[in-house]
Amino acid sequence: MLAEVAAMKFEEMMSMLKRIYFSLIFVMVSVAMANAAYASEQLRIVGSSTVYPFSASVAEHFGKAGDFRTPVVESTGTGAGLKLFCNGIGDGYPYITNASRKILPSEQAECAKNGVNKIIEARFGYDGITFANSVKGPLFKLSRKEIFLALAAEVPKDGKMVKNYYTKWQQIDPALPDVPIKVYGTPPVSGTYDTFIELVMKKGCEQVPELAAIITDKDMFDRKCRTLREDGAFIEAGENGNLIAEKLIGDPDALGFFGFSFLEQNTGKVQGSVIDGITPSFESIQDGKYPISRLLYFYIKADNDKPIAGIKEYAQEFLSEAAIGDEGYLVTEGLVPLPEAERARVRKEVLEQIK
To answer: Do 339 and 105 touch, CB atoms closer than 8 A?
Structure first.
């Protein structure tokens, strides 16, 4: 009798252990499947090198909250980022791209061709393209006309266009430093480069009356305004503004241009040039007096083939007062904030559009 009772208890114990074993297997498989789905929905963000430090900081704060994985943020340049963003829908393509300029109609058309039809634009702050040089060099006070004459591939002379013959700044204006013309800048895939062409080269070109008198064809005039010299006076130095700053520190006579935040990050090592009589500063960029000010953006793909975990929460973090408010953590990193009412309006518009 005792043997029979022991056998029954043993069978019950084995049955219980089997139930526990299969329950554990079920839980482990469920967790693995959830993790696989979760991994496929990790946010991938590409785009502007100027926006990259801000986006990376937001991603870090977002990840620390613990509800979602920290997004992967890549600095590809605005143009390259928008191209990747517009290539298609699904896990193989970025869900968000950063931009230091507004998306172009041609880029929107490319997006639409690949099924990316619903794009949400989020402007989140101001930036200014700053020209700078080492604090060991002379302070430059430049006009956009002088920058155009220094860097254009061709300039007017004696009633015709000739290859740029200026080799020193002082040749353009005797009040400028007697140093060689040498400017480090970002490559054409960069939104900073695009803005430099539009707000510096093109505007400076329009201030040279001799050029308009020589070239009457509108398209040709536009090409001459946008084309940079290739004889070493302008040097493509990559996307990273801090790397450009390092080159300036080691080359006191050279100039370079990058976003305002990189000037802030290198205070005491490089100095901002005065442009058209205005010094680049937090205040002059925010009030629009600085002539090379611009808005910063990120774009969200809203017509994904499935809901994307964390995409709304990431946008919410980026557009929060804690991030972009007057005392937000991005402001301490060099962002020039939008006015409070505009911040609230953008936040409402963007979040209402995300499913």
So the answer is: no
Nearest CA to 141 out of 119, 104, 174, 112 is that of: 174
> Coil, strand, or helix at residue 318?
helix
- Name the stretches of the chain with pLDDT < 70: 1-41, 305
Q: Nearest Cα to 43, choosing from 115, 118, 117, 94?
A: 94
Other CB atoms within 10 Å distance of the CB of residue 282:
17
Report the pLDDT value the prediction gives residue 239, as an integer from 0 to 100: 84
Output the six-digit token pair for 235.
């040097």
| 347 touches 321 (CB < 8 A) | no
Give, in order, the Cα–Cα distances in Å from 48 to each of 75, 192, 299.
6, 8, 11
Number of H helices, E strands in the chain: 16, 13
- 3-class secondary structure, 121: strand
Strand-pair category, 96-99 with 293-301: antiparallel
- What is the 3-state composition of the chain as percent helix, strand, coil, each rounded to the nearest 5? 45, 20, 35
Residue 237 corresponds to which amino acid?
A
pLDDT digits (tens, 9 = 90+) for 53-97: 999 999 999 999 888 999 999 999 999 999 999 999 888 899 999
The dihedrals phi and psi of 286, each to the nearest 5 degrees, come to -65, -40
Q: Residue 201 carries which DSSP code?
A: I
The pLDDT value recorded for residue 20 is: 45
Site of tokens 């973090």? 317
* pLDDT score, position 15: 54
Nearest-angstrom CA–CA distance, 31 and 49: 37
Burial (CB count <10 Å: 0-12, 13-18, 19+), residue 191: buried
DSSP collapsed to 3 states, 47-70: ECCCCHHHHHHHHHHHHHCCCCCC
Write out the H or E segment, with its range, that includes residue 30.
Answer: helix 2-40
Q: Tell me what pLDDT residue 202 has.
A: 95
